[in-house]
Amino acid sequence: MAVMNPNESIVHIEDVRKTYQMGAVTVEALRGVSVAFGAGEYVTIRGPSGCGKSTLLNVLGCLDRPTSGRYFLGGEDVSQLDDDTLSTIRGARIGFIFQSYNLIQQLSVVENIEVPLYYQGCPEQQSRDIAAELAERVGLGDRIHHKPYELSGGQQQRVAIARALANDPLIILADEPTGNLDSTSGADILGVFDELHDQGTTIVMVTHDEQVSSRAERTIHLRDGRVEHDERP
Q: What architecture is domain 40-64+81-231?
């Protein structure tokens, strides 16, 4: 499959390599990966353990810089920016959803959703209004004052999804978002992702589950740090 250029995509990585030095051992986690994602795409990333899925997600999320290669996010080359600049870009352009939810237990639903807005300097009342609207959007309008420990796993993941949407990001990155859920709750969460996709949200999700991948419009298979297949069902 031809790779889109930076002007045709919102995310574009070009010949990205990531190498880690583990004592005397050099580990090549990514070995020349080139891939691009267009606005509104729903993409899953699959592959065996150790194939580079997490490393790729970390690079896409500006949590790590590539050893070599280029990464364009929203048309801007962010490959070698310093940590402070990457942190600012992360907060403004990227939404994260994790397998373990990563909610703050002392905060209510609406306060957890507000966290990214706080770091963006959003005015308090505007922040509260946005968070309440997002809680309603993910089906938690009647739970906004509950703490995470008062919610089911599926409800907690809905909070995490709402929080990821709070800064109106260019792209949502999800790492095994149904991995800690039972089949019923997992199906409900995947339904939320389907709705987000229908609304034009760009989603890139790491998953080991073939049934999850079947719901996406595109699946990238990694093996040994390289793209093995890039396919559209």
A: 3-Layer(aba) Sandwich (3.40)
| 174-231 tens-digit pLDDT | 999 998 899 999 999 999 999 999 999 999 999 988 888 999 999 999 999 999 999 8
Q: Which distant-in-sequence residues (6+ apart) come within 8 Å of 145 by Cβ? A: 108, 109, 110
* Letter string b/e over residues 214-224, b meaning 16 or more CB atoms within 10 A of that residue's CB: ebbebbbbbee
Cβ(178)–Cβ(189) under 8 Å?
Answer: yes
The pTM of the full predicted model, rounded to 2 decimals, is: 0.91
> Which of 98, 35, 30 lies closest to 64, judged by CA?
30
Tell which residue, 38, 39, 172, 16, has the closest CA to residue 93. 172
DSSP annotation string for 86-151: HHHHHHHHEEEEETT----TTS-HHHHHHHHHHHTT--HHHHHHHHHHHHHHTT-TT-TT--GGGS
